[in-house]
Write a structure and sequence with these properties.
Blueprint (H helix, E strand, L loop, with lengths): L1 E5 L4 H5 L4 H6 L5 E5 L6 H10 L3 H4 L5 E4 L4 E4 L10 H7 L5 E4 L11 E5 L2 E2 L5 E3 L2 E4 L3 H9 L15 H17 L3 E6 L2 H8 L4 H21 L10 E4 L5 E2 L2 E3 L1 H7 L5 E3 L5 E3 L6 E6 L2 E6 L2 H8 L5 E5 L1 H6 L10 E5 L3 E3 L47 E2 L9 E6 L12 E3 L3 H9 L17
Helix pairs in contact: 7-9, 8-9
Length: 449
Amino acid sequence: MIVLDVVGLQPRHLEDGLAPNIERFVDADTVASLEPQFPAVTVPAQTTLATGQTPAEHGDVANGEYDRDEDTAAFWERDRADRNRLWEAASDDADLTTGALFFQHLIGTSADSAVTPSPIEDENNDMIEMDCWTNPEEFYDALREEYGHFPLHNYWGPAANEASSEWILQAARESIDRHDPDLLWVYVPHLDYDAQRHGPRSAELEEAVETVDDMIGEFLEWLETTDRWHETVVNVVNEYGFHSVDTPVFPNRVLREAGLLSVKDDGEGGEEIDLAASRAFAMVDHQVAHVYTDTPEEARHALEDLDGVDAVLGAEGKRKRNLDSPNAGELVLVADSNAWFQYYWWLDDESAPYYATDMDIHAKPGFDPCELFFGDSGLASLDPTKISGSHGRVDEGTYGIYGVGGPAAPELELDNSTVDARDVAPTITDLLGIDDSISLSFDRSSLLQ
């Protein structure tokens, strides 16, 4: 069972002839649009795909996590914690050999073959040395010897490009050669970059689709030469598509103007948010923002008329969108389809905190796509008007893709229908024949039933 998560890929790319290699393995009869759960951002989407549950159930509500007790917002922390996903359940409960490459929260996974970036950093979050956490421990040493260090600068930031996907697909080959997994789940990232930089209908994104199609074509052609090809099912999935955007929205500036958000000196001449002293704070994440507040009605009053905000969700709104988790904000903002949320709270660039122009994904208490562009005074731009694509809302035009192919694939007539993201995990479980063996509890049934 090979699962390729090609973030940003949509059925229309196959229909437009941009991905002939992928289409050779998953033709139109076995391709569906995939409706993500809200919010359609990386960590919640990945966890839903790998557990068959909603964010209300699995608890991953954003790419960041806000700790109310400590008053801290942390993005992209890499520990598994108590997450139990399909590769862990198949390994622990069904005694299958499993692999997972470059999904979030992999450190500590029980997957037999795992790779995730884990650079060695100093106390200022500056990288001292590139490294990856792997299962088995020596796996990264073997990958580095063969292919060099994982190109982290091509995985995110102004130099992000297809080199990261190429390295990951090489690691997938090595995982198959060395560990022979029964289930291998692989994240292929680079369409994400051009979709955000240039927009989902841009020539640059179409070129990126053709590039990733060539890479996956080469990987699948190599897979055809392996001993277990005759018993292989290939799943192609994508977490979400992108909206064209032209309107950055700044909820933290509004909360500051309303007297609900406090700032302090960052020690280097800029303004740092004072989370402990703030009565409301928006942890922004593409087209969604979680507002953590002691005074929800005041915060709602300040934010509900903000241009670019489509909805302010309270308890009932979160429940209707399967987001009623204690990890979610007291309020959740949803952007207009052409808008997205930026974390800035300062009113002029001279007051920006020291890390605003750095590649510092852990210090920033919100997702910052401006890191995809070089800045005038640092690695990251402070110009949010550069962003042309975003995601997070769940609209039909931005659904992902799910397709099934390969020599051992069953007859599955999807034929451009729409499936729920929660259908993926039970379908793969069914295909593996382990539905009675694992401890995961699914919301929905396999597409084969």
